[in-house]
Amino acid sequence: PVNPEEDECVKETYTDPNHAEYNIKVPPPPPVQKPNPPTLADLGASIKLMPLSVWKKLGLPDLIPTQMTLELANRAICTPDGIARDVFVPVGKFTFLADFVVVDYESDPRVPLILGRPFLRITRALIDVHGEEMILRDEDERLTLNMKQETVSYSN
């Protein structure tokens, strides 16, 4: 836990009382200084995104409201339509549960969902970059995804 009195980087922490895992830490504004060279900052934020159109097409239960805001890669700020909880995600012979942040955006039809690091952790994924494959595990079973082709195939 971060204590605002001890950590000058954190001004406030906003929490959605219905979902304790969605905390947003707001740093104080940076002091005005001479311009710095461009930098890339990965703050470790990782969520699973689903377009609103896919949520409607799947006929999932009502979205859970959220006051979260997202800063996209192009620096645009968007407000999600809500959270879709406990969505079944079939991957080969496995089915995993995942929560998605639902946003009204146009997705690439070839990639309707964006699965982040939390999904890879849930599936206990092992990624072999050199061998161009990814292994998903569920208890004693495993699924190997061949990443060499443009269309991902899998073998048991």
UniProtKB/TrEMBL annotation:
Zinc in keyword set: no
Protein name: Reverse transcriptase domain-containing protein
Pro residues composition-biased segments: 26-36
Region (Disordered): 1-36
Biological source species: Tanacetum cinerariifolium (Dalmatian daisy)
Tree of life domain: Eukaryota
Keyword Zinc: no
Keywords: Nucleotidyltransferase, RNA-directed DNA polymerase, Transferase
InterPro entries: Peptidase_aspartic_dom_sf
GO MF annotation terms: RNA-directed DNA polymerase activity
